[in-house]
Amino acid sequence: MTGRGKFITLEGIDGAGKSTHLAWLVDFLRSRGRTVVQTREPGGTPLGEKLRELLLSEPMHLETEALLMFAARREHLERVIWPALERGDWVVCDRFTDASFAYQGGGRGLSHDKIQQLENWVQGGFQPDLTLLFDLPVEIAMQRIAGAARQLDRFEQEQRDFHERVRAAYLDRARQMPERVKVIDARMNCARIQNELENIFSTY
Ligand code: TYD
Fold first, then answer.
1. Which residue lies with its CA nearest to atom 20 of ligand 1?
2. How many whole angstroms from 184 Cα to the centroid of ligand 1?
């Protein structure tokens, strides 16, 4: 599609600091003259935000969890992401389908095959143009989460081995799709991470 904007997603285990880097990245891209739509998953639409509330607080079967993630995604694609890309805007999204493979797949143990079926159904062959995976050891991420002065959500409250499986699943995806998924060492300080992001986007 000529004239189509870029779809950039940010991923990482809870506590990897992606929200901070996302805010910086959006400002950076705007300073380069891009029109940027900043959004997040689960969420990004009125219905999606309601589903998010349920997903982050309500105990549920793992397949229900996956189905609701993809229900929110369907709405998000149709109402926000695809129209923005068609206009030529860039979309920067805090998490997308890699998170379903990492959390519902790696973390909860839902089969890759089932997630893939949902992915095919909901988005066809549509994929992010670029995914930034903020990676760091679970121990450090958990210390960061524990220091946060707010109530932890259902995923953040999971045990260490859950987060280890999520991290491993993310890294696995990066190994399988190195062209799309760029791993960023989230242990680095902000200045170095910003430097790396500038390098990545210099070729965009
Ligand atoms: P997160 O993006 O970490 O938001 P915040 O920075 O406000 O805490 O929270 C969203 C949670 O949803 C995160 O723990 C991962 C989870 N999630 C999934 O399990 N599957 C998905 O497909 C998506 C998009 C998110």
1. 100
2. 18
